[in-house]
Protein backbone atom coordinates (compact mmCIF):
# COMPACT_ATOMS: atom_id res chain seq x y z
CA UNK A 1 0.00 0.00 0.00
CA UNK A 2 1.23 3.46 -0.91
CA UNK A 3 1.45 5.88 2.00
CA UNK A 4 -0.18 9.22 1.28
CA UNK A 5 1.98 12.27 1.74
CA UNK A 6 0.50 15.51 2.98
CA UNK A 7 2.82 18.40 2.28
CA UNK A 8 0.15 21.11 2.49
CA UNK A 9 1.84 23.12 -0.22
CA UNK A 10 0.63 24.58 -3.46
CA UNK A 11 2.56 23.67 -6.58
CA UNK A 12 2.62 26.10 -9.50
CA UNK A 13 3.20 24.42 -12.84
CA UNK A 14 3.56 25.49 -16.48
CA UNK A 15 2.51 23.10 -19.24
CA UNK A 16 2.37 23.05 -23.04
CA UNK A 17 -0.49 21.88 -25.22
CA UNK A 18 1.36 20.62 -28.29
CA UNK A 19 -1.00 19.36 -30.99
CA UNK A 20 -0.12 17.52 -34.19
CA UNK A 21 -2.97 16.49 -36.47
CA UNK A 22 -5.60 15.11 -34.05
CA UNK A 23 -3.10 14.14 -31.37
CA UNK A 24 -1.70 15.77 -28.24
CA UNK A 25 1.70 15.14 -26.71
CA UNK A 26 1.35 13.92 -23.12
CA UNK A 27 3.25 12.42 -20.21
CA UNK A 28 1.49 9.10 -19.47
CA UNK A 29 0.86 8.24 -15.80
CA UNK A 30 -0.99 5.23 -14.41
CA UNK A 31 -2.77 6.55 -11.28
CA UNK A 32 -3.15 3.81 -8.68
CA UNK A 33 -5.62 5.96 -6.70
CA UNK A 34 -8.40 6.18 -9.30
CA UNK A 35 -7.34 3.42 -11.73
CA UNK A 36 -7.24 5.85 -14.62
CA UNK A 37 -4.49 6.64 -17.09
CA UNK A 38 -3.65 10.31 -16.74
CA UNK A 39 -2.34 12.18 -19.78
CA UNK A 40 -0.47 15.27 -18.64
CA UNK A 41 0.88 17.92 -21.04
CA UNK A 42 4.67 18.28 -20.76
CA UNK A 43 6.01 20.93 -18.44
CA UNK A 44 6.87 21.25 -14.80
CA UNK A 45 7.10 23.33 -11.68
CA UNK A 46 8.22 26.92 -11.49
CA UNK A 47 11.35 27.77 -9.57
CA UNK A 48 11.36 30.77 -7.25
CA UNK A 49 11.50 34.01 -9.26
CA UNK A 50 10.89 32.25 -12.59
CA UNK A 51 7.99 33.23 -14.85
CA UNK A 52 5.69 30.52 -16.15
CA UNK A 53 6.88 30.98 -19.74
CA UNK A 54 10.55 30.75 -18.81
CA UNK A 55 9.82 27.67 -16.67
CA UNK A 56 7.93 26.08 -19.55
CA UNK A 57 10.74 26.65 -22.03
CA UNK A 58 13.26 25.24 -19.52
CA UNK A 59 11.16 22.16 -18.74
CA UNK A 60 10.51 21.34 -22.42
CA UNK A 61 14.20 21.73 -23.19
CA UNK A 62 15.11 19.42 -20.25
CA UNK A 63 12.47 16.77 -20.99
CA UNK A 64 12.23 16.73 -24.78
CA UNK A 65 15.32 18.64 -25.92
CA UNK A 66 13.12 21.04 -27.88
CA UNK A 67 13.02 24.78 -28.16
CA UNK A 68 9.40 25.92 -28.31
CA UNK A 69 7.39 28.86 -29.54
CA UNK A 70 4.71 29.80 -27.01
CA UNK A 71 1.63 30.89 -28.94
CA UNK A 72 -0.73 32.06 -26.16
CA UNK A 73 -2.08 31.26 -22.72
CA UNK A 74 -4.60 28.46 -23.12
CA UNK A 75 -5.91 28.77 -19.58
CA UNK A 76 -5.14 28.68 -15.89
CA UNK A 77 -6.39 25.62 -14.02
CA UNK A 78 -6.53 24.82 -10.31
CA UNK A 79 -7.04 21.39 -8.82
CA UNK A 80 -6.72 19.39 -5.64
CA UNK A 81 -6.19 15.72 -6.39
CA UNK A 82 -4.40 12.56 -5.36
CA UNK A 83 -2.06 10.86 -7.77
CA UNK A 84 -0.25 7.66 -6.83
CA UNK A 85 -0.68 8.31 -3.12
CA UNK A 86 0.36 11.95 -3.15
CA UNK A 87 -2.13 14.71 -2.32
CA UNK A 88 -1.53 17.76 -4.48
CA UNK A 89 -2.94 21.26 -4.74
CA UNK A 90 -1.78 22.53 -8.10
CA UNK A 91 -2.19 25.67 -10.16
CA UNK A 92 -1.32 25.15 -13.83
CA UNK A 93 -0.60 27.78 -16.45
CA UNK A 94 -1.27 25.94 -19.71
CA UNK A 95 -0.01 27.43 -22.96
CA UNK A 96 -0.47 26.55 -26.60
CA UNK A 97 3.01 25.88 -27.93
CA UNK A 98 4.80 24.60 -31.01
CA UNK A 99 8.23 23.01 -31.26
CA UNK A 100 10.68 25.12 -33.24
CA UNK A 101 12.06 23.85 -36.54
CA UNK A 102 14.47 20.98 -36.20
CA UNK A 103 12.59 19.27 -33.35
CA UNK A 104 12.04 15.55 -33.77
CA UNK A 105 8.26 15.07 -33.63
CA UNK A 106 8.06 11.66 -35.28
CA UNK A 107 8.17 9.31 -32.34
CA UNK A 108 5.45 7.07 -30.95
CA UNK A 109 6.83 6.97 -27.44
CA UNK A 110 9.78 8.66 -25.75
CA UNK A 111 11.07 7.62 -22.34
CA UNK A 112 13.32 9.85 -20.27
CA UNK A 113 14.96 9.65 -16.85
CA UNK A 114 15.08 12.91 -14.90
CA UNK A 115 18.04 13.96 -12.78
CA UNK A 116 16.30 12.64 -9.64
CA UNK A 117 15.84 9.19 -11.25
CA UNK A 118 12.14 9.61 -12.06
CA UNK A 119 11.16 7.89 -15.30
CA UNK A 120 8.68 9.58 -17.63
CA UNK A 121 7.01 8.36 -20.80
CA UNK A 122 5.75 10.81 -23.43
CA UNK A 123 3.36 9.75 -26.20
CA UNK A 124 1.22 11.26 -28.91
CA UNK A 125 -2.39 10.52 -27.88
CA UNK A 126 -5.39 10.67 -30.22
CA UNK A 127 -7.82 13.29 -28.91
CA UNK A 128 -10.76 10.96 -29.59
CA UNK A 129 -9.23 8.36 -27.25
CA UNK A 130 -9.35 10.83 -24.36
CA UNK A 131 -13.15 10.59 -24.29
CA UNK A 132 -12.89 7.12 -22.71
CA UNK A 133 -13.87 7.10 -19.01
CA UNK A 134 -10.65 5.33 -17.93
CA UNK A 135 -8.58 8.19 -19.35
CA UNK A 136 -8.10 11.70 -17.99
CA UNK A 137 -6.43 14.60 -19.74
CA UNK A 138 -5.04 16.58 -16.86
CA UNK A 139 -5.80 19.19 -15.73
CA UNK A 140 -9.52 18.48 -15.70
CA UNK A 141 -11.39 20.69 -18.14
CA UNK A 142 -8.49 20.91 -20.59
CA UNK A 143 -10.02 18.51 -23.14
CA UNK A 144 -13.20 20.60 -23.28
CA UNK A 145 -11.13 23.75 -23.87
CA UNK A 146 -9.20 22.05 -26.68
CA UNK A 147 -12.46 20.96 -28.32
CA UNK A 148 -13.92 24.47 -27.99
CA UNK A 149 -10.78 26.07 -29.44
CA UNK A 150 -10.77 23.64 -32.37
CA UNK A 151 -14.43 24.49 -33.01
CA UNK A 152 -13.44 28.13 -33.29
CA UNK A 153 -14.73 29.23 -29.91
CA UNK A 154 -12.38 31.39 -27.90
CA UNK A 155 -12.65 30.42 -24.24
CA UNK A 156 -10.51 31.73 -21.39
CA UNK A 157 -10.33 29.74 -18.16
CA UNK A 158 -9.21 31.57 -15.07
Characteristics of this structure?
Nucleoside Triphosphate Pyrophosphohydrolase, mainly beta, 158 residues, 10 strands
Structural class determined from secondary elements:
mainly beta
Integer-rounded radius of gyration? 15 Å
**What best-fitting shape do the alpha-carbon axes yield?**
globular
CATH structural fold name: Nucleoside Triphosphate Pyrophosphohydrolase
- Report the CATH architecture: Alpha-Beta Complex
Put simply, the count of helices is: 2
Q: How much helix, percentage-wise, in residues? A: 10-25%
User: For this structure, what is the CATH homologous superfamily?
Assistant: Nucleoside Triphosphate Pyrophosphohydrolase
| Count of extended strands | 10
* Cα separation of the termini: 36 Å
CATH class: Alpha Beta
The helix/strand series, from N terminus to C terminus, equals EEEEEHEEEEEH
Let me know the average pLDDT: 87
Number of domains: 1
**Strand residue content:** 35-45%
Largest sheet: 6 strands, mixed
Amino acid sequence: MVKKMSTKTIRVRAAAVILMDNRILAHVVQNSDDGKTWFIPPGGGLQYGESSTIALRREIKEELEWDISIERLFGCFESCHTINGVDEHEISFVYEAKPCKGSTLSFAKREIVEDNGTKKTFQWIELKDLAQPQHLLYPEGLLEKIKARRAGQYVVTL
